[in-house]
Amino acid sequence: MAKLYFNYSTMNAGKSTVLLQAAHNYAERGMQTYLLTAQFDNRAGEGRIASRIGIGEAADTFSISDDLFRKIEGRLGKGPCACVFIDEAQFLSSDQVWQLARAVDDLGVPVMAYGLRVDFQGELFPGSATLLALADEMREVRTICFCGKKATMVVRKDANGDVVTGGNQVQIGGNESYVSLCRRHWREAMDDGDDTLV
Question: Which residue among the candidates 73, 88, 140, 176 is catalytic per the annotation?
Answer without folding.
Answer: 88
